Task: structure prediction
Amino acid sequence: MATYVTACPRNCYSTCSLKVEVEGQRITKVEILPLNKATPAGPCLKGLSYVERVHSEERILHPLRRRADGCFARVSWDEALDEIAGKLTDLRERFGPQSVMYYQASGTKGLLNAVGANFWRLYGGYTGTYGDLCWPAGLEATRLTLGDNKHNAPWDLENARLIVLWGKNPAETNIQQMLAIDRASESGARLVVVDPRRTLSAERAELLLQPRPGTDGALALGLAHVLVEQGWIDEDFIARHVKGFSRFEELLLDYTLDRVSAITDVPQKAILRLAELMGRVKPMSVCAGFGMQRYTNSGQTMRALIALPVITGNIGKPGAGWIYANLQSAVFDLVKDPVAFFPPKENDGIARISISMARLGPDMMAQQEPPLKMAWVERGNPIPQNPETHSVIQAFRSLDFRVVVEQFMTDTAREADLVLPAKSMFEQTDVIGAYWHPYIQLKQKVIRPPGEVKPESDIYYELASRLGIEPELLKGKIPEPGDAGVELYLRDKLRPFPELSLERLAEGPVMAPGTEEVAFESLVFPTPSGKIELFSEEAAGRWGLDPLPSFREPDESLLGRYPLYFMTPNTKDRIHSQFNNLRLIRQFSREPRLHIGAEDALKRGIGDGDFVLVFNDRGELEMKACLDLSLKRGCVVVTNGWWIGDGGAANLLSAARETDMGYGAAFHDNMVEVVKMKEGLR
Ligand SMILES: Nc1nc2c(c(=O)[nH]1)N[C@H]1C(S)=C(S)[C@@H](COP(=O)(O)OP(=O)(O)OC[C@H]3O[C@@H](n4cnc5c(=O)[nH]c(N)nc54)[C@H](O)[C@@H]3O)O[C@H]1N2
Ligand SMILES: Nc1nc2c(c(=O)[nH]1)N[C@H]1C(S)=C(S)[C@@H](COP(=O)(O)OP(=O)(O)OC[C@H]3O[C@@H](n4cnc5c(=O)[nH]c(N)nc54)[C@H](O)[C@@H]3O)O[C@H]1N2
Ligand SMILES: [Mo]
Result:
């Protein structure tokens, strides 16, 4: 038996350091490696299920070709790669390289992910995507306000005396943050949650505010109104470091307690209580999740939220801050997010067309000159995960040729002509960062890829040689197949950072060079004015928005066509569409359920376990109802990530729509009706 140090590369805050035990070519145990100060305990349920996931009999181990009858049959790598190279050559000649779409998403972190784009550039260009499904409205709001996306180290939360979890549910999505919250609570810190659902994270909170979805901007402005009125602000901090406070103060006049209470459906008393805590208890950390930044008004919402730690002077101090995204470990990126998500400039030297991640389906179908003919998908499952699933399916079906690189037969892989088997996290070495803690980590290869699995970098290398691309051109861009090639590639990327040698990383996590454990401690803000910008000309210039973070009702509730907010949060049982096919996970999460409150259920004659139809004008889902007293009236919930075959693919109901800034996806701006299915319909 051998033990290795590695790290989990899933798209998750925690990005845990792990220790794995290996016997022969089998992973036998996955444990936490407590050297990472942010992830001292764990692993989560998914971490425990890796033992099953890697060796699952459902894993795709060979290239598969769709036959004329629609079934998949095993083909050799030579057949698969020859066919792809033939298509690529033909399409480039007839329509140009941009007739091929390269789609990649959040399946795994790593420096080697860049190899894909390197290949497609060498191919001569491609159609790519801009924006992101996850968090860019909040990233852009933070960049506009504070100048940079960074926050205090996760363990610093213990120093907070007031913790506000706003639209974040770490008990399910960032379990180690709950450890810091526990330690803070033991020494007397106060905990408040703002979420339309009474989440697992709210169990220990002294106060839960349940705003109507999408109205958090108004709530934040109402809180700021009370803070200013009561003099609970840090005037000295504001005078030195804040731009636009007097105009912000004027804006607040409109957000009186009674108006805000009416908009948000939060009792005035609760708003006053939270304002008083924010005004009197210091230091305060506002831990903002991603929930409220996936609406059509989200960027402005997030700007209004950031104003709360700003006007109370809770920036640049231990235990304080705006805890949203910590990109301090993104040292390898030349431009830090969110700018990285913006559409590439016309003249960036690469013949590239870029379409919106949020409007993937409609934009794929709308593309002309050249029209899309082929798609290559890796590290993503866009059919259930991108908005407007039916249009994504239609767009994929309208192509001539589809390649999906996958570990499992997902909804997207099922649409492919060729499915290529993908590596797991244990089968190729890579270097990964994180977006919550500041560590850089080595994700080690600890077993050989099973069956005929090849890492993407090998697949690209072999395709490149089939396309006649000179090996000279691949240097530093696509590693030679095999471990030595990968090592060379990684050493090259690490060269500018002597503290990040592969040897050092093999011992455990290393804090990124230049990490500030207390972010913005120097009170330098890289905004145009050098100050924190509550008034942002860039917000107006770039996004056509009010330079102040004024509140606007989200599109769908403005329309008022359907009565129920359709919420699709994450769950402890999955990372988005991954893990749910495993036996361990199925024991916790067998089938999708429509969670609905008692009042909304009674009104519709729905009982617990009844089959219901959830619908709007974009689609419908059929599933069992689960009566749930933790929900705000008017809200129903299906966790996202179910596959179409499970009957719970939430994006069948969402609209392909962008957020007001940052090119995010406004999935959550989604309203539905629910009816009980008539007996006999099932
Ligand atoms: N176990 C697990 N962990 C994960 C993931 C996972 O899928 N599973 N995914 C990872 C990824 S990629 C992400 S992006 C993060 C997400 O991490 P979180 O942001 O913590 O999770 P979400 O479920 O997206 O949203 C958080 C909360 O926002 C609430 N919410 C929705 N709309 C509103 C609103 O209008 N106002 C307010 N105040 N709250 C609202 C939801 O009820 C939910 O409880 O988690 C990461 N960690
Ligand atoms: N309605 C609704 N929709 C949402 C959300 C929501 O809250 N509500 N959340 C959104 C968010 S925050 C996110 S981040 C996205 C996530 O959506 P995606 O980025 O599409 O992520 P996953 O669903 O995790 O799918 C990743 C796929 O990558 C595969 N994979 C894993 N490792 C590798 C690898 O090394 N190589 C290859 N080739 N494949 C690999 C996995 O098997 C999996 O099928 O979903 C978004 N969709
Ligand atoms: Mo995400």
Summary: The radius of gyration is 25 Å.
